[in-house]
Amino acid sequence: MNPSWLLNKNPSGGDQVPEDLSFIGGIPRLPADVPLPSCALCGEPLTFFFQIAFPDGHAWGSRSIALFACTCCADERYLIPEMLEGELAGADIPEGFLTAYQRNFRILPFPTQDGTLRGEYKPKIRFERLLVSPAPSPDAPGNKLGGSPNWLLDDEAPATYASAVPMEFLMQLTDPPRFDLEDEAPPQIRIGLRGKPEPSPHRYYELFIGNRLYFFGTKAGAEPLVYILTQV
Length: 232
Ligand SMILES: [Zn+2]
Known about the structure:
mainly beta; 12-stranded mixed β-sheet; 2% helix; binds zinc ion
């Protein structure tokens, strides 16, 4: 069985320090040579949402992912990551799909040890430290790394990428966290009730309209690519 770790906010709080490896908001910790991403739809810099350092024993152990998404534009075609066509369970993800589908969001995988705080980024989401702790069982519910996915609906786990590389379950956010804002952060642009983009009245951002998120990654050894799918 795959080992599994629960992912929880640290209730004791505290400011961001360079040793933080898994956290929401604040300043991203990325390799120095990785450009901060911008939105392919509107051109604005993407907002940093969170990053996770996968623990030893996880399929992506010693690797991290950082997730950025646009909060400056809203396009009803791309409120959630583009889905594959046809049957999702056991699907083969076409070559190139996992790069091309990152229009208004970006997932940056990198070796955890290569990360450095990128002080040139001005935080919009308030920093919150995440705690990674062993789960009681691989099928434990809740936000977690590794183990087996707890599907809300049908099993939609993909099988392979580019007909060759096995896809492995990385993590799930079945209880999506709130992304609280810094005081000076602008409101998120969302699709309003009249079907047009407009500023949200809320002082928090939503990632992929708050859907439950399931993350799969290419097997270690292949180019690191992430497939995100949502259920609601
Ligand atoms: Zn945008």
